[in-house]
UniProtKB/TrEMBL annotation:
The keyword Thylakoid does not apply. Keywords: Repeat, Signal. Pfam families: RCC1, RCC1_2. The keyword Ribosomal protein does not apply. InterPro entries: Reg_chr_condens (IPR000408), Ub_ligase/GEF_domain (IPR051210). It comes from the Eukaryota. This is Regulator of chromosome condensation family protein. It comes from Populus tomentosa (Chinese white poplar).
C-alpha cells in the first residue's frame, strides 16, 4: 500500500485549519450580531435634545453671549430635573417662532423660550430661558405637541384613566383663549379621539381618529380650507363645507396626517379613491 504523499497531509492540514477557522469566524459573527442587538436594544432607553440657531428669547435653552447657537448643542438632563445618567427619553419636540416644547417618555411636557402670548402654558407672559414642566398638564400623559408662532397644542390622556377617556386636545397661547392649557373640542364632539394636531402661524388644524379635520384661527389666505378667505379670528369648523364651491362633489376621503405651514395646510388621505 502506498502512503499518501506529503502534499496530501499538508493539504488535509490546511483543509482542517480552514474548517476550524470558519467555525471560529462563524461564532465571532454570531457574537458580533448578538452584541449589536444588545446595544441597539439598550440604546433607545436614553435620548437627548439638541438645539441650535436663533436664541433671542432663550428658546435654545443654552447659555451664551452670541444671541444664537451656530453648532447643535445637547441640553443637559439636569436642565429637565433628571440627574445625570438617569434614563430620559424624548417622544416629541416642536418649535414655535421663539419657543420650544418637548414631550418626555414619562408623558410630561416641558416648554421654554418666548411667552408674550402665554405660549409656555405656565399662566404668565414672562419668557423663560430654561425648560420647565407644564404644571397644568401634570395629571395628563402627554403624547405629542405642536407649536404655532405664538401658541401651543398638545394631545394627552388623563393619567388616572379607566380607559374611557382617550386622546384629547389641549391648546394655549395666542388666539387660544388661555395662558394655561385648556381642553378644546371645537367642532368635534367631546369624546372624539384626537390623532394629530398641527399649528400654523395663526391657525390650528386637528385630526380625529376617524379621519376628520377641523380648523380654526385666521383664514386670510384660505388656510382653514373653507372655500373662501376672510378676515379675523374664525371659530372651529370641520373641513368639508368647501364642497359647495365646487361643480362636482368631491370624493370622501379619510385623512391620516396633517401639517400646517405658516399660512397654508397640507394633508394625506388613506386612499386616493373610495
Ligand atoms: C439665549 O438667550 C438667553 C435669554 O436671553 C440668554 O440668557 C442665553 O445666554 C442665550 N444663549 C445663547 C447661546 O446665546
Amino acid at each position: 500500500m502506498k502512503f499518501p504523499s506529503v502534499s496530501f497531509w499538508v493539504y488535509l492540514l490546511v483543509l482542517l485549519l480552514g474548517v476550524f477557522k470558519r467555525r471560529d469566524s462563524i461564532e465571532m459573527d454570531i457574537n458580533g450580531i448578538i452584541g449589536e442587538t444588545k446595544r441597539s436594544v439598550n440604546f433607545p432607553t436614553k435620548s437627548a435634545i439638541y438645539v441650535w440657531g436663533y436664541n433671542q428669547s432663550g428658546q435654545t435653552g443654552r447659555e451664551g453671549k452670541d444671541g444664537h447657537l451656530r453648532i447643535p448643542k445637547q441640553l443637559p438632563p439636569e436642565l429637565f430635573g433628571c440627574p445625570a445618567g438617569a434614563n430620559a427619553r424624548w417622544l416629541d419636540i416642536a418649535c414655535g417662532r421663539e419657543h420650544t416644547a418637548a414631550v418626555a417618555s414619562d408623558g410630561s411636557l416641558f416648554t421654554w423660550g418666548a411667552n408674550e402670548f402665554g405660549q409656555l402654558g405656565d399662566g404668565t407672559e414672562e419668557g423663560r430661558k430654561y425648560p420647565k414642566k407644564v404644571k397644568q398638564l401634570e395629571t395628563e400623559f402627554v403624547k405629542s405637541v405642536s407649536c404655532g408662532a405664538h401658541c401651543t397644542a398638545a394631545i394627552a390622556e388623563p393619567r388616572q384613566n379607566d380607559g374611557t377617556i382617550l386622546s384629547r386636545l389641549w391648546v394655549w397661547g395666542q388666539n387660544q383663549g388661555s395662558n394655561y392649557p385648556r381642553l378644546f373640542c371645537g367642532a368635534f364632539s367631546p369624546n372624539t379621539i384626537i390623532r394629530q394636531v398641527s399649528c400654523g402661524a395663526v391657525h390650528v388644524v386637528a385630526l380625529s381618529e376617524d379621519g376628520l379635520l377641523q380648523a380654526w384661527g385666521y383664514n386670510e389666505y384660505g388656510q382653514l380650507g373653507r372655500g373662501f378667505t376672510c378676515e379675523g379670528l374664525q371659530g372651529a369648523r370641520v373641513i368639508n363645507a368647501y364642497a359647495k364651491f365646487l361643480d362636482e362633489t368631491p370624493e370622501l376621503v379619510k385623512i391620516t396626517q396633517v401639517s400646517c405651514g405658516e399660512y397654508h395646510t397640507a394633508a394625506i388621505s388613506e386612499k386616493g379613491e373610495v
